[in-house]
């Protein structure tokens, strides 16, 4: 799926002036109600679903961007819309900055995998800060739509099954882990698992012989992402990781290994 397939032109509003988060959600419900895909769903139902999602945690993810989303059982295809708010609005963002660009998703309840991939693809498309600024500055819905499609040009294509690699990604920082997982989760044809891990010093300090030598500050957070991907996509995953971390050769607190698989069959559910 490409983002251009699911952006609904009737669900785009540029240069909006909205006072608060509650009004943003109302505006989204009104815009979503304009598309034929939501003709049998009331604005109140859409609004309630958006509000329920926000109670789980803000869908703002920093840098002036939020991706409010919800799932509705009577929606049979994805609805993606855009709102630009040049003056910004408080959206409980983790970096405490106002949100200036809203990309919302109304999703069917029957396709969790595509929903996750769509969220990941949108967040990846918005990595270009200069292009995001151009989207916020767009003077019309048509211009905003065109700028968004420009940002979405780099969607990852679907590859036919072939030889596969296994990647191990060890991460010792929670925020870096969340960013990387969000960035790679949308890669189609890949399987991911997350394993809780611990630094070796967490074990050594419990052994009397090593306890004194291990009595220093070491990261307590440690996760390992195991990825099974088409061999052609290994470099893409590394590129996405380095977009977040910088050169892996100069990083600490993260380790990536790649292994060619002699045999691989089956697929994990998301």
Shape: globular
Mean pLDDT: 86
Please compute the radius of gyration using only Cα atoms.
21 Å
Flag low-confidence runs.
155-160
Structural class: alpha/beta
Number of domains: 2
Q: What is the C-level CATH assignment of the largest domain?
A: Alpha Beta
| CATH fold type of the largest domain | Mannitol-specific EII, Chain A
Strand % is: 15-25%
Number of helices: 9
CATH superfamily of the largest domain: Mannitol-specific EII, Chain A
Cα-to-Cα separation, first versus last residue: 17 Å
E-strand count: 10
**CATH architectural category of the largest domain:** 3-Layer(aba) Sandwich
Largest sheet, in brief, is:
6 strands, mixed
Q: Write the element-wise H/E pattern from the N-terminal end onward.
A: EHHEEEEEHHHEHEHHEHE
Helix content: 25-40%
Topology:
Blueprint: E1 7-13, H1 21-32, H2 43-55, E2 60-62, E3 65-66, E4 69-72, E5 79-89, E6 99-108, H3 112-125, H4 129-137, H5 141-151, E7 164-171, H6 174-184, E8 191-196, H7 200-204, H8 208-211, E9 223-230, H9 234-245, E10 254-260
Could you walk me through the main structural features you see in this protein, from its secondary elements to its overall organization?
By secondary structure, the chain is of the alpha/beta class. It folds into two domains: 3-154, Mannitol-specific EII, Chain A (3-Layer(aba) Sandwich), CATH 3.40.930; 164-260, Alpha-Beta Plaits, CATH 3.30.70. Helix content is 34%, strand content 24%. The protein has nine helices and ten strands. The protein has helices spanning 21-32, 43-55, 112-125, 129-137, 141-151, 174-184, 200-204, 208-211, 234-245; strands at 7-13, 60-62, 65-66, 69-72, 79-89, 99-108, 164-171, 191-196, 223-230, 254-260. Strands 1, 2, 3, 4, 5 and 6 form a six-stranded mixed sheet that branches. A hairpin with a 2-residue loop joins β2 (60-62) and β3. α4 runs antiparallel to α5 and α6 runs antiparallel to α9. The chain is globular.
